[in-house]
Amino acid sequence: MYQTIQFIHSYWAYLVVIMLTIASISAIIGWVSGKEYSAGNFRISLFTLIVSHIQLLIGIVLYFVAPYFKMWGEVGMGGVMSDDTLRLYNLEHPLMMIIAIALITIGYSKHKKKLTSTPKFKTLAIFYTIALVVLLSRIPWNAWL
């Protein structure tokens, strides 16, 4: 079960990174160029929100079935915090991904309340780009690629 969920989580992550990158670039271009906010822009931002939330749900399941989770009980907080790998998988990666998805959710919610195109693009550009940076900062690159 663990390998299957890890496989799904790893490959769904490619979709999340691609969609978040596209949404960020699209929002930045729309903001800078003064384009009109279109249904296509809305779909990109919504699809990014959806795939990131699906990834969060897969990640939560993976967190509790992963062998790393058992280490909290075996070596305790001090043991997990002193081991770089355990700290990454048990604390840093989950926490930063939750923060990134919260930023995506907040940005999406705030942009819907804006009435004109420039503030919509600006809100999406800021929140989605920060979320992308946060997300990329804590991906376990050595295990992922």
UniProtKB/TrEMBL annotation:
Annotated TM spans: 12-32, 44-69, 89-109, 121-141
UniProtKB keywords: Membrane, Transmembrane, Transmembrane helix
Protein name: 50S ribosomal protein L27
Protein species of origin: Zunongwangia pacifica
